[in-house]
């Protein structure tokens, strides 16, 4: 069978989708190539949230096609994901070497489409139609099998789509409207993962806190999402439970309280606030105020004082003044986020913000991005320094990405910890004494507690 390489751009949902497609292909007998140059088939899973992600994917595909022609080698090339969904046939017209375009509701059809192309049944395939029930088709996982490389963590997709329609975001147009899986179906997938050695599960959705609003609804004062958290929390053998990406509107009192009563729900909350200016939040169609966002953080820290809080922030949204930007800066200083993902606003075709007046010049975006990032980094470093001398529980996940001779894991508050250890410690919960810090990294070396 041919070999396949999947290149992924974008969010954790895209990473999860790529993993599921890879697992499906392996099940069909395909081999996974270690590099794109060695592969017979290269699939690029694309992101449309920012223009830079689309341009990277287009540039990569052009480079792959050019190299294949120079090598005089037959290579099947395809796009998947959000850009594939939004641009469709245009991608084949623009890049004639592309053979396959698979939309966001058609990932499970990838293997069948590849088979048809390889057998000569069709020359080009573009499949971006909606498909009812597609939210329940991505269940496969590509878990490492040996004891030395056993997968410790896994992502589980609980829903597809988004109904929020923020004025800057293309996702509702590329992922469709919200569609949720059932609680028993999700629990079954999680139980299967735990039986294979997974210790930590992260539940995924475009707006994960909107899970089951229509299909399941609230019960006994608990949202469908909190009901799901309760069900997964009860799975024997599961050590940790996380979720991403939520919306501030989803942090009701029931979810806040869950942090204090569900033992496996990690003390980590990602709250994508986007701006500290109420004027900007209204223009973004976010549905909450600065004051409400601050209240959510306050309540979470009351229930769980050690909780790690992260956020997403956008600079340079149309009409953003220096005063608006300073309100974002003051919000960051007031909350003291453990980390923040800072983005420069990117115009997306077809979104309301694309046509808004007072588009901010790129040089202003660059300057504000640098200022905000400097503040975020300084706060993050100070937050890390508070851990020095403390003992924390770490789930050992595998070799450090920067130094494979050491191990890496995460605290319940989602802090990365690098420490000395070996293969037998992977997948274990370890108590480590923190000896030093980096920008956003903790070091538990050499003083390790209870490591045998």
Radius of gyration: 22 Å
Q: What proportion of the residues form beta strands (DSSP E)?
A: 15-25%
* Helical residue percent band: 25-40%
Report the total helices: 13
Termini distance?
A: 44 Å
Oligomer: single chain
Order of strands, widest sheet:
19-20-17-16-15-18-21
Q: What would you call the structural class?
A: alpha/beta
The whole-number mean of residue pLDDT values reads: 93
Low-pLDDT residue intervals, each spanning 5 or more residues: none
Question: Biggest sheet: strands, sense, closure?
Answer: 7 strands, mixed
The gross shape turns out to be: globular
The beta-strand count equals 21
Chain-wise SSE layout:
Elements: E1 3-8, H1 12-27, E2 31-32, E3 41-46, H2 51-70, E4 76-81, H3 82-87, H4 90-94, E5 100-102, H5 110-118, E6 125-127, E7 153-157, E8 159-160, H6 171-175, E9 179-180, H7 183-195, E10 200-204, H8 224-233, E11 240-244, H9 253-261, E12 268-270, H10 278-284, H11 290-303, E13 308-315, H12 322-335, E14 339-344, H13 362-385, E15 391-399, E16 407-411, E17 416-419, E18 429-433, E19 436-437, E20 441-443, E21 448-449
Parallel strand pairs: 1-2, 1-3, 3-4, 4-5, 5-6, 7-10, 10-11, 12-13, 13-14, 17-20
Antiparallel strand pairs: 8-9, 15-16, 15-18, 16-17, 18-21, 19-20
Helix pairs in contact: 7-8, 9-11, 12-13
């Amino acid at each position: 069978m041919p070999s396949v390489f999947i290149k992924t751009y974008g969010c954790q949902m895209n990473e999860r989708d790529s993993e599921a497609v890879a697992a499906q292909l392996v099940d069909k007998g395909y081999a996974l190539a270690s590099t794109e140059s060695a592969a017979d088939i290269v699939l690029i899973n694309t992101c449309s949230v920012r223009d830079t992600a689309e341009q990277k994917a287009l540039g990569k595909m052009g480079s792959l096609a050019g190299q294949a022609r120079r090598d005089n080698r037959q290579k099947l090339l395809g796009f998947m994901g959000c850009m594939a969904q939004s641009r469709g046939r245009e991608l084949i017209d623009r890049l004639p070497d592309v053979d396959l375009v698979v939309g966001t509701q058609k990932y499970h059809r990838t293997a069948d489409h590849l088979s048809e192309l390889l057998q000569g049944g069709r020359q080009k395939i573009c499949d971006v139609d909606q498909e009812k029930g597609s939210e329940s088709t991505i269940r496969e996982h590509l878990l490492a099998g040996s004891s030395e490389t056993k997968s410790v963590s896994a992502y589980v997709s609980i829903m597809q789509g988004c109904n929020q329609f923020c004025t800057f975001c293309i996702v509702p147009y590329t992922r469709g409207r919200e569609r949720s899986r059932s609680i028993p179906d999700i629990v079954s997938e999680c139980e299967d993962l735990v039986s294979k050695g997974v210790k930590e599960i992260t539940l995924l959705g475009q707006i994960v806190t909107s899970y089951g609003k229509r299909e399941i609804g609230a019960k006994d004062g608990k949202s469908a999402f909190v009901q799901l958290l309760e069900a997964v929390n009860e799975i024997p053998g599961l050590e940790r439970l996380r979720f991403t990406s939520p919306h501030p509107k989803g942090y009701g009192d029931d979810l806040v309280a869950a942090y204090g009563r569900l033992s496996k729900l990690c003390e980590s909350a990602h709250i994508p606030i986007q701006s500290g200016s109420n004027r900007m939040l209204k223009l973004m169609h976010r549905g909450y105020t600065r004051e409400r966002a601050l209240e959510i953080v306050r309540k979470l820290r009351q229930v769980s004082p050690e909780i790690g809080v992260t956020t997403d922030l956008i600079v340079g949204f149309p009409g953003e003044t220096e005063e608006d930007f300073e309100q974002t800066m003051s919000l960051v200083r007031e909350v003291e986020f453990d980390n923040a993902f800072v983005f420069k606003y990117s115009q997306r075709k077809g979104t309301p913000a694309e046509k808004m007046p007072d588009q901010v010049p790129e040089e202003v975006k660059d300057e504000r991005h640098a200022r905000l990032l400097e503040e975020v980094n300084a706060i993050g470093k100070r937050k890390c320094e508070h851990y020095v001398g403390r003992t924390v529980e770490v789930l050992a996940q595998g070799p450090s990405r920067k130094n494979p001779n050491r191990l890496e894991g995460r605290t319940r508050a989602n802090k990365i910890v690098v420490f000395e250890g070996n293969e037998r410690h992977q997948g274990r919960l370890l108590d480590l004494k923190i000896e030093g810090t980096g920008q956003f990294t903790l070091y538990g070396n050499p003083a390790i507690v209870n490591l045998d």
